[in-house]
Amino acid sequence: MPKRQLKGKIVSNKMQKTVVVEVESVKENSLYKKQFKMHKNYKAHTEEGKYQIGDIVTIEECQPISKDKRWQVVEEISKN
Questions:
Q1: Residues contacting residue 42 through CB under 8 Å, at least 6 positions apart
Q2: Distance between CA atoms of 53 and 80, rounded to whole angstroms?
Q3: Would you state the pLDDT for residue 10?
Q4: Which of 12, 47, 69, 70 could make a disulfide contact with 65, Cβ separation 3.0–4.6 Å?
Q5: Is residue 39 within 8 Å of 32, Cβ to Cβ?
Q6: Are 44 and 19 in contact (CB under 8 A)?
Q7: What's phi and psi for 16, nearest 5 deg?
Q8: How far apart (Å, rounded) are the C-alpha atoms in residues 17 and 63?
Q9: Is 21 buried (19+), middle (13-18) or exposed (0-12) by CB count in 10 A?
Q10: Nearest-angstrom CA–CA distance, 26 and 37
Q11: 59 with 8: CB under 8 angstroms?
């Protein structure tokens, strides 16, 4: 089974080897058909501290690294 990959924006890089990535999705109300945006924050592992707030990155599922970390940064799509 392939690992899930998500694209999001870094909102925090204050921890060592960890960044917080906000992933935005668009949902639709089933009754009224109105679309609305939702977001969720994921803690992602990164060995090097080269990512800054506002960078767009791709994260991928991995084995649990800590209590909250189950994702790792795969690539940087664009810099802030």
A1: 6, 8, 20, 21, 23, 59, 70, 71
A2: 7
A3: 98
A4: 69
A5: no
A6: yes
A7: -80, 130
A8: 16
A9: buried
A10: 5
A11: yes
Start-to-end Cα distance in the chain: 33
- Residue 80 host element (H or E): none
Name the nearest CA neighbour of 79 among 5, 4, 3, 13. 13
- What domains can you pick out in the chain, each with its CATH number? 5-78 (2.40.50.140)
Asked if residues 57 and 71 have their Cβ atoms less than 8 Å apart, the reply is: no
What the block records as the tokens of 52 is 């800054």
Which residues, given as ranges, of the chain have pLDDT below 50?
none
Residues whose CB falls within 8 Å of the CB of residue 56, separated by 6 or more in sequence, listed in order: 7, 8, 9, 10, 76, 77, 78
